Amino acid sequence: MIKALILKTVAAHDDEATPLAWATAYGFCIMLAYYVLRAVRDEISAADRGNLHFLWTAVFLVMLVVVPLYSWVSSRWPRGVFVPLVNRFFIANLVLFYLALVVLPESARPWIDRVFYVWASVFALFAVTVFWGLVVDCFTNAQGRRLFGFIAVGSSLGAIAGSALTASLAQQLPPFSLLLLACLPLEAACWFARVLHRRFGGNADPARAENRPLAGGSWSGIAIVFRSPYLMGIAGYILLMTYASTVLYFLQADLIRAALADRAARTALFAHIDLWTNAITLVLQIWLAARVIRWAGVGATLALLPLVTAGGFLWLGAVPQLAGLIALQVAYRALRYGLAKPTREVLFTVLGREEKYKSKAFLDAAIYRGGDLASGWIFTGLKAAGLSIGAIALAAAPVAALWAVLAIWLGRRQDKAAKFAPPILEKGAGP
Questions:
Q1: Helices (H), 104-228
Q2: Rounded to 10 degrees, what is the CA torsion of 83, 85, 368, 280?
Q3: 13-425 adopts what CATH topology?
C-alpha cells in the first residue's frame, strides 16, 4: 500500500519505491526528534539573549572539534556502523542532560541551559547532515532531482509532529522532560539507517565501497573543500544563507522577548511558528519541489529563496513589526526547507563519497556555524553602532541579492558536473 502511494505521488520508478520509503522514514524520525528539542533551545536563546553571540561562538568552536572527530570515525568504520553510532551518541547525551537537570540544584540551571543550547545547535546540523550524507550516497543525481523533494516531505512531517507535540506539552510538562521523549525517534532512525544501508550496500560483499570505511583521514575532507571551486561556492552559499538566517533569528529573539514576558508562552509561540512553517513547507515539497527543479533547473530554484529574502528585508526595513517579521520568518523557512534544501542536496550528488560525508559535514556543520558566529557578531556590532531593526534589515537586502547570483553560478557548475564520468568524480577533486 505504501509503495503504491509513493508511486502515485512522486515520479519514482518501481525499484526506487522501497529505498525511498526507508529514506523518508529516516528523515521523519530525525526531524521529529529535533523539533521536540528546537522550541526548548529557542526559548533559551530568548531568555539568555544578551549571551547569544557568546553561545554561537562556543557552538563554532565545538564544531571545529566534532567535524574532524566524525571524519576519523567515518575513516574507521563503514557507513552502516558510523551513521547509527552518531545518532546513538546523541541519545546518550540527552540522557545525561536529563540526569543533570534532575540531580543538580536549580542554581546550576542557567549553565545547563547554555550547554544544552550549544549541544542542540550542534545536533541540529550534525544529525541532519549525516542523514543527507547517507541519502546523497544512496541516490544518483538524476534520482535526486526527482526524489529528494519527497524525501524532504518525510522530514517536514517529522517536524510538524515534533512541533505539535512540543506545543501541546510545553506548558504542561517541565521542558527538560521532553529530552527523553526525543530519544525514541532517534533510536528508530538508527534502525532505518541500517535498513537503507543494507538496501544499497550489498551487505554481504565486503568489497563494495559502501561496506568499507571512507578514504582519507580526519582532515582530508576539509582539505578537499579548499581545492575545489565548486565546494567553495557551496561554502559561500551557506555563509550568505546563514547571514540572512541570523538577522531574522536575532530580530525574532529581540521582538518576541519584548512582546512576551512568560517563558512558557514564548516556547509555545516558537512551537506554533514551527508548526505553520512546516505545514507550508510540506505543501511546497509535495506539489512544487520536483516540478520546479525540473522546470527551472537547480540554479534558478536555489536563487528563489535569496530573491524572496531580499524583498522581505526591504519590507521589514519599511515596517519593522513583530507580525511582519513572523510572516517573513515563516516564508523564509518554508522556502528554505521546501525548495532550497532538497535542491542544495542535489549539488552533492555529483561528488565522490569522501566529499558526500566528510566535506559535506565540514560545510553543513563547521562552515554553517562559522557563518552563524560571524553573522552574530556583525549583528551585535550593528546594534552597538545604533542601527535600528529596520536599518539592519535594509542592510541585509543587498547581501541576499549577492546570494542569488551565487546560486545561479552553482546551478551552472552542477549541470556541467553532472556530465562528468563517475571515475573522475571519485578521485575527490570535485567539479
A1: 109-138, 141-169, 178-201, 220-227
A2: 60
A3: Growth Hormone; Chain: A; (1.20.1250)
Where do the structural domains in the chain lie, given as residue ranges?
Answer: 13-425
Q: What is the chain's alpha carbon radius of gyration, rounded to the nearest angstrom?
A: 21
For 398-427, the three-class secondary structure string (H helix, E strand, C coil) is: HHHHHHHHHHHHHHHHHHHHCCCCHHHHCC
Is 101 in a helix, a strand, or coil? helix
Q: Do residues 338 and 284 touch, judged by C-beta distance below 8 A?
A: yes
- How many C-beta atoms surround the C-beta of residue 5 within 10 A? 11
387: region left, alpha or beta (phi > 0 left; psi from -120 to 50 alpha): beta
Q: How far apart are CA 8 and CA 13, in angstroms?
A: 10
The most distant pair of C-alpha atoms in the chain lies apart, rounded to whole Å, by: 64
Count CA atoms closer than 13 A to 321's CA, side-chain side: 4
* Terminal C-alpha separation, the chain: 41
Residue with cell 544578551: 50
Asked if residue 275 lies in contact with residue 164, where contact means CB atoms within 8 angstroms, the answer is yes
For the chain (431 residues), the mean pLDDT of every run of 10, in chain order, is 72 83 94 86 61 79 92 91 94 93 85 88 90 92 89 88 82 76 94 87 62 85 94 97 92 79 76 82 85 92 96 89 87 93 94 93 91 88 90 94 97 88 41 53
Among candidates 340, 335, 334, 373, which has minimal Cα distance to 122? 373
Model pLDDT, residue 212: 82
Separation CA 356–CA 152 (nearest Å): 18
Helices in 319-388 by DSSP H: which ranges?
322-335, 341-346, 353-354, 360-361, 368-384
DSSP code string of 223-278: HHHHH-HHHHHHHHHHHHHHHHHHHHHHHHHHHHHHH---HHHHHHHHHHHHHHHH
